[in-house]
């Protein structure tokens, strides 16, 4: 670090006088990149934040270009690591619509299978499912009304859910094999 920090106005003059050189240097390290302007701006911010480490009278050109080179290398490593495929907005919307339609179709099939499976349950199990998921009232009220313990109701719901899950999976597999 410098013994006496450089005055801000002297640093600004050096930075401004070297802008074309810094810009040309960054462009030479990133040929054809659309991000050069952003990188030059980031280099300027880094240089400004490190201005107290620059000693007046030393080689500003070498110091600023070395800083720029290291920042460009960091930027390029980050871009390689974070390589993203970017689509046009219309392509993204089309992909989203297709995914939504496919998801809705799959959900509709599962709901159809679930309704078929519920219709195969015994009447008392259907009543319990309707009470629990459509009427959404508490289990304790239903337990009292049915004359069973709350624990027995929970166990019955657990058993019914497993049976429904297996039934829906089986119907989905059958539908996939027949399609």
Short overview:
This protein is an all-alpha fold and 179 residues long.
CATH architecture of the largest domain: Orthogonal Bundle
Q: Quote the CATH topology of the largest domain.
A: Arc Repressor Mutant, subunit A
Structural class by SSE content: mainly alpha
Give the biggest sheet.
none
**Gyration radius, in Å:** 34 Å
Taken together, the total number of domains comes to 2
What would the average pLDDT be, to the nearest integer?
85
Give unreliable regions as ranges. Answer: none
Structure description:
The chain is mostly helical and 179 residues long. The chain folds into two domains: 8-81, Rna Polymerase Sigma Factor, Chain: A, CATH 1.10.1740; 98-178, Winged helix-like DNA-binding domain superfamily/Winged helix DNA-binding domain (Arc Repressor Mutant, subunit A, Orthogonal Bundle). It contains eight helices and no strands.
Chart the SSEs and their pairings:
Elements: H1 8-17, H2 19-29, H3 36-49, H4 60-81, H5 89-120, H6 123-135, H7 139-146, H8 150-178
GO molecular function: sigma factor activity
Family: Belongs to the sigma-70 factor family. ECF subfamily.
Protein name: Sigma-70 family RNA polymerase sigma factor
């Amino acid at each position: 670090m410098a013994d006496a920090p450089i005055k801000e106005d002297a640093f600004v003059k050096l930075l401004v006088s070297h802008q074309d050189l810094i810009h040309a240097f960054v462009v030479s390290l990133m040929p054809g990149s659309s991000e050069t302007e952003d990188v030059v701006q980031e280099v300027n911010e880094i240089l400004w934040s490190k201005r107290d480490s620059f000693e007046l009278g030393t080689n500003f050109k070498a110091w600023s270009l070395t800083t720029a080179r290291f920042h460009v290398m960091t930027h390029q490593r980050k871009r390689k690591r974070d390589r993203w495929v970017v689509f046009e907005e219309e392509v993204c919307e089309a992909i989203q619509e297709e995914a939504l339609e496919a998801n809705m179709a799959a959900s509709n099939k599962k709901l159809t299978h679930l309704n078929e499976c519920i219709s195969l349950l015994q009447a008392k199990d259907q009543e319990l499912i309707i009470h629990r998921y459509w009427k959404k009232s508490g289990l304790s009220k239903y337990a009292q009304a049915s004359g069973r313990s709350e624990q027995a109701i929970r166990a019955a719901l657990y058993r019914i859910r497993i049976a429904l899950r297996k039934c829906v999976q089986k119907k989905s597999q059958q539908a996939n094999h027949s399609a």
